[in-house]
Amino acid sequence: MAFEADGGQAAPDFSIGAAMGAAAGYVAAGGLNAAAIAKVSAETQKLVSAAKSGGFKITAEGVKPLLKAVRDMGTELTRLERQTIRLSEAPQLGDHPYGRAVAAHDQKGAAQSANSASAVLGKFKQVVQDTEEALLRASGQYKNKEAETVEALDRLKN
After folding, report:
1. Residue 130 has what pLDDT?
2. 73 and 127 in contact (C-beta within 8 Å)?
3. Whole-model pTM above 0.70?
């Protein structure tokens, strides 16, 4: 089931689709790097804030496929992190000054810079975790509001 907005509210200007679409756009525009992740993270934080304030709500049924997709992405990022662990090792380019200098430079770029695969994967993994938090909050708040409404209707009946 797709996203179900709370019938009493206007649709928000941001969504999970917008955040993930932004990520896809940044990749298409030049790759997934620290700047792209920072922009996606900012959009995700808006989603978390909206969920915390009650501005983003979703049913338990509606959240299931979204949570599955987000959790699958988290699993994939963990797999990628394991595959890229070797990037933290300096390549063996010889035991001469130039080989050592190039190896150190390659290692720094591959594993230690802000745009390294490991840094970007780690930041993207945090975005995915924040997205999961927003979904859980949104579905939990929806359940709470639904329970309050049922209680209010029950009080009116009595």
Report:
1. 92
2. no
3. no
